[in-house]
């Protein structure tokens, strides 16, 4: 079973647990205080939200080459403006940028000029191994 055939939620949970063991991926000091976007009211409540978001970003980069701008659209949402109409807002670029930098340092992602971020063979093997383990 490949990454595309496995349930995304289960794959992200397993990958987040595996990413906690990678020394390059570490939440920054400000991660416990920051909201993930203007459309959110509070910071994430989960203790390991940084690793969950990192696994999700890694999966998104695996499925198609993307950069910070596109990922901000994906993780954005609608802001509740009270009685005014809601509008779609992008998520925090600093969170996504820092995660991509950490994934690059770990060797899972690399930057290619003109294409944005792409997955490396090491990153493909990492996710494929998790997907195969989940398929058993």
Fold blueprint:
Elements: H1 8-19, H2 49-63, H3 68-75, E1 77-79, E2 87-89, H4 93-106, E3 109-112, E4 116-119, H5 121-135
Antiparallel strand pairs: 1-2, 3-4
Walk me through this protein's architecture:
With 136 residues, the chain is mainly alpha-helical. The protein has a single domain (8-135), classed as Winged helix-like DNA-binding domain superfamily/Winged helix DNA-binding domain (Arc Repressor Mutant, subunit A). Helix content is 47%, strand content 10%. It has five helices and four strands. It has helices at residues 8-19, 49-63, 68-75, 93-106, 121-135; strands spanning 77-79, 87-89, 109-112, 116-119. A hairpin with a 7-residue loop joins strand 1 and strand 2 (87-89). The mean pLDDT is 88.
Brief account:
The chain is mainly alpha-helical. The protein is built from five helices and four strands, in the order αααββαββα.
């Amino acid at each position: 079973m490949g990454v595309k055939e496995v349930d995304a939620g289960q794959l992200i949970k397993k990958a987040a647990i595996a990413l906690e063991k990678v020394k390059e991926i570490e939440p920054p000091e400000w991660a416990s205080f920051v909201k993930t976007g203007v459309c959110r009211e509070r910071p994430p409540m989960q203790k390991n939200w940084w690793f969950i978001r990192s696994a999700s970003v890694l999966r998104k980069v695996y499925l198609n080459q993307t950069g910070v701008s596109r990922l901000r659209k994906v993780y954005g949402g609608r802001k509740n403006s009270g009685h005014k109409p809601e509008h779609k807002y992008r998520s925090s670029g600093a969170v996504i940028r820092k995660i991509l930098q950490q994934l690059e340092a770990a060797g899972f992602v690399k930057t290619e000029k003109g294409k944005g971020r792409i997955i490396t063979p090491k990153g493909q093997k990492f996710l494929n191994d998790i997907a195969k383990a989940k398929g058993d």
